[in-house]
Every structure is written in C-alpha cells, then in structure tokens.
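Worked example 2:
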Amino acid sequence: MLKITRTETSAEETWILQGRLVGLWVTELRKCWKKTHRTDNNLKCIVDLNDVTFIDDKGERFLRTMSKEGVQFVARGIYMKHLLQQMCGR
C-alpha cells in the first residue's frame, strides 16, 4: 500500500509518500506525477520519504527520474538516507 499526498503553495510543491514504493504503486505514483507535477522552474519540489518503509528496483528507478527533474528528497533513517545517496549521488 502507498499513500500519496500532494500539497502546493506559491513557492513549493510537496509530495508525501507513506508505505511501500513497489510494483503497481510505483505505476500509480508515476501517473499522479505526470498528471499533476508542475515543471515551473521557480517552484521548488520536495518529496518526503520519511514514512516509506521499502522501495523496490522499479521505485528506485522512478526516484532517480524525479531527482533528474530537480526534486529535493526529505528522508530520515539510515536505510532511506543510504538508498538516496546510492541512487542520486547526494
């Protein structure tokens, strides 16, 4: 299960993900992303991964795509921070 919450202000777009970023849930996130993500260069985009418990290979690939589009990730915990460093080189 994956819960996706999106909020937007004039300065930033925030995506909060909760649960497991795996399989069909990655497909669902990708659909939501393509439908609602704004590509305005002046709008900061933050993806909060604090409550994500697991990410499979498909999820990792999509997070890499998001990273290339300038997304800033927020994560706590050793697992998630390590995963982001490996994926995004940060």
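The longest helix spans residues 23-36. Helices lie at 23-36, 57-68, 78-88.
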